[in-house]
Design a protein that fits this description.
The complex is a heterodimer of chains A (about 300) and B (about 240). Chain A has about 300 residues and is mainly α. Chain A has one domain (about 1-120, about 155-295): ABC transporter involved in vitamin B12 uptake, BtuC. Chain A has 11 helices and 4 strands. In chain A, the strands form 2 sheets. A two-stranded antiparallel sheet of chain A has the order 1-4. Chain A has a two-stranded antiparallel sheet with strand order 2-3. In chain A, helix 1 (about 1-30) packs antiparallel against helix 8, helix 2 (about 40-55) packs across helix 9 and helix 9 (about 235-250) crosses helix 10. The two termini of chain B are about 30 Å apart. The longest helix of chain B is centred in the C-terminal third of the chain and has 18 residues, at about 170-190. Chain B folds into 2 domains: about 1-85 and about 160-170 and about 190-245, P-loop containing nucleotide triphosphate hydrolases (Rossmann fold, 3-Layer(aba) Sandwich), CATH 3.40.50.300; about 90-155, no CATH class. In chain B, about 50% of the residues are buried. Chain B has 10 helices and 10 strands. Chain B has about 240 residues and is α/β, with parallel strands linked by helices. Chain B has helices at about 45-55, 75-80, 100-105, 115-125, 125-130, 140-155, 170-190, 200-205, 225-230, 230-235; strands at about 10-15, 20-30, 35-40, 60-65, 70, 85, 160-165, 190-195, 210-215, 215-225. The chains are: A mainly alpha (about 300), B alpha/beta (about 240). The complex binds adenosine-5'-triphosphate and magnesium ion.
Chain lengths: ~300, ~240
Amino acid sequence: MDYFLQQLINGVTLGSIYGLIAIGYTMVYGIIGMINFAHGDIFMVGAFVALILIVTLGLSAATPVFLLIFALILVLVLAMALTAVWGWTVERVAYRPLRGSFRLAPLITAIGASITLQNFVQISQGARNKPLQPLISGGFQLTDGGPDGTGFVVQLSYMQIIIIVTTIALMAGFTFLINKTSLGRSQRACEQDRKMAALLGVNVDRTISLTFVMGAALAAVAGLMFLLYYGVIDFFIGFLAGVKAFTAAVLGGIGSLPGAMLGGLLIGLIETFWSGYFSVEYKDVAAFSILAIVLIFMPEGLLGKPEVEKV
Amino acid sequence: MSSAQPLLKVRGVETFYGKIQALKGIDMDIYEGEIVTIIGANGAGKSTLMMTVCGTPQARNGDVEYAGENITYKPTFEIMRTGIAQSPEGRRIFPRMTVLENLMMGAMVTDGSTYEEDLARVFKLFPRLKERQGQRGGTLSGGEQQMLAIARALMSRPRLLLLDEPSLGLAPIIVKQIFDAIKELNERDGLTVFLVEQNAYHALKLAHRGYVMVNGVITMSGTGSELLAREDVKAAYLEGGAH
Ligand SMILES: Nc1ncnc2c1ncn2[C@@H]1O[C@H](COP(=O)(O)OP(=O)(O)OP(=O)(O)O)[C@@H](O)[C@H]1O
Ligand SMILES: [Mg+2]
């Protein structure tokens, strides 16, 4: 039971990171119907931007807690902003010129953008692993290992709390933005009928750009969390994380925002539980198998929208 | 009325879909305060003209001038921010938005200060929509969607309202309501209306002036009553006359 609880905590943490990335896939798919294969690499760029900022600010575990919290918030905001510029640029350079072209064209440039980002970071930052000494350590012990001290000790680290709380807060804010603000309405309008949105005065190009910007900003948050949690990044982390987050988006129902969150959480949990109870080697296979099974029975994903509509 | 500059001036407009030419040099004027209708058979190019005014698709040749400004090559969203609104063919309601959200989308181009007032106005016009505010657009009946499309266009407080077949799929009593409403908006608020209608009799009755379009060309024009009186118009578009 204690072991189960520990896997649950780890799984939710990992799932939060996947969920934040998955939102970017699902929103872009929703609005322009393409898979942005470069999104995983935007996440990677976000992690590097965060690392550079942390190093530049000279943060370490020795930094006083009060200052450290303040500095990390600053890093978060700056990383979101800078990574958003990257997301914006990818859309502007690689996708917008091809809008209205045949459907596969932007998929090809997406792969090109992905490779470009990876190579750029590899060349400018080096191919080796970039370690970061833990900035935030410690946490709570939820169990004490039983009376004789031989049982399993369940840990909930401060870092895990930060990741989960930040993710919940961002997702709440984001859901509000999409559902209740005029920007969110414009985005949904573009998603449902781009031509009609334009006929109502919506600047469709700008709305699409903002969607990429928002997705990239959330990926940057995931990048910072990943960096702080695992303490090591390299130019290739975007690939696997991207594939997982994409899987999460499809599992939840691509195009659906709550679906991306749910999918991220599930993929994180499946992976963690599989590693915890079976074997680490096959954790990715497990996640993809579950995806395949779900898609056989629910082709639209868990929260997708098969819907009868009058046209 | 024809003394002033027209509010909308269309000159020599040619529009293509790929290689297919849908409009073959259209000239048309709409003056402020007028209701102008275009009648014509299916596929004549009526909807295409309406869309060309809004810049989607853009004319390949010719000019569209609105309020003295050449808008032929302006992006659609900018054109729609200058006081033109369209209730398009096929209604194009956002299916996964509620009725209220659809109306909010209509009000996007306003500064928001008159939103409550405009909402009350369209709800008065279509009480049905008020009852259905929270329902998703895609689940409305065809007639309700048509009402919503018109209401959404009105939410932007247009100076020029483009209506593409507003009576399509509506019961006669609702059609009458809508036509009365158009007339009232025109007479009371001075709203200028460009109307495309299947029901040529009603349209010509309502309109100050009309044009007849055949295969992308304007073949006749005149006041509503002039066109209604013409034998060739009667024969071609009013089969059996008034009903
Ligand atoms: N998207 C398109 N691609 C290719 N051809 C088109 C397109 N839209 C319209 N057309 C063609 O352009 C011509 C004019 O069509 P349009 O829709 O303007 O006719 P309409 O007068 O509105 O007809 P209706 O009364 O049936 O609505 C038709 O021949 C039509 O087939
Ligand atoms: Mg038409």
